[in-house]
Amino acid sequence: MKTEFPGSTPITIVIADANVMAARLLSDQFKRHADFDVVSCATDRASLLKVTRKSKLAVALIGSDLQDGPLSGIAVLRELLETNPGVRPILVFDRAEPHLVVEGLRAGARGVFSRANFDFTALRKCVRRVCEGQIWLGNSELEYVLQALAQARPLRAVNADKLELLSRREEEVMRLVAEGMGNREIAELLGLSEHTVKNYLFHIFDKLGISNRVELVLYAVSNHKTSIQVRQDKPLSDSVGAA
Predict the structure, then answer these.
(1) Residue 16, SS3?
(2) Cβ atoms 116, 138 nearer than 8 A
(3) Domains of the chain: residue spans and CATH
(4) What span, in angstroms and rounded, lies between the C-alpha atoms of 174 and 166?
């Protein structure tokens, strides 16, 4: 029996995994809910890219291993996004190793989900949040990314004269992004147009030397001078905002 969500548009999904039976069982679980539409199940790079080219997809749920070999699910991400830039990939790991989580996000994953202690309710929430434009990371995965960020080139918080780079309004926009708000929500809250919010974000990216909202959120939550209200429910995903 399907769970109905009157008036909602189903989220179109492709499921890719080396294990055919696992992919089909997961597909059957999603098909019990009317707010999801599983377009296809794929087992390898070729079949995944084929359905991506043919179908308008919202989310691609990809196992880290496809039948092409270990970690081929990660390897296909960039090609997948070139084929269909609008799709939002979620990587599914049997066990999320730190370096694999970081590599997956660098390759374009918008969410990371672990099969350990599998919870289908949490996975449905993950798919919805990623479809809405948020980044989905559990507490452990976020910690991995923050550690990688700390080891990389530090983000600039001040200029050469030790002056603060962001204006008060830019700090406010950054804080709201980190709290999980999209451009429209920020615009409504601050009484601005969405275009103005986008302009603020472009300026913030330029000043901090970053290129996307994920890096901005990671900067915000790791900057002790910025007050970020991070929700500590499981997993820690709703604090990472829309792209």
Answers:
(1) strand
(2) no
(3) 11-132 (3.40.50.2300), 153-222 (1.10.10.10)
(4) 9
End-to-end CA distance of the chain: 34
- List the one residue out of 104, 89, 52 whose CA is nearest residue 243: 89
Instruction: For 165-189, write each residue's pLDDT tens digit.
Output: 788 899 888 888 876 677 888 899 9
Secondary structure (3-state) at 114: strand
Cα–Cα dist 38/70, whole Å: 24
Name the pairing type of β-strands 88-93 and 59-63.
parallel
83 close to 47: Cβ distance less than 8 angstroms: no
Question: pLDDT by residue (tens digit) across 34-61?
Answer: 999 999 999 999 999 999 998 889 999 9
Which DSSP string do the residues of 118-161 spell out, in sequence order?
A: --HHHHHHHHHHHHTT--B--HHHHHHHHHHHHHSPPPPSB-TT
Q: Is pTM beyond 0.70 here?
A: no
Residue 71's CB is within 10 A of a number of other CB atoms, namely: 14
- Residue 235: cis peptide before it, omega within 30 degrees of 0: yes
Q: How far apart are CA 132 and CA 128, in angstroms?
A: 6
CB atoms within 10 A of CB 55: 14
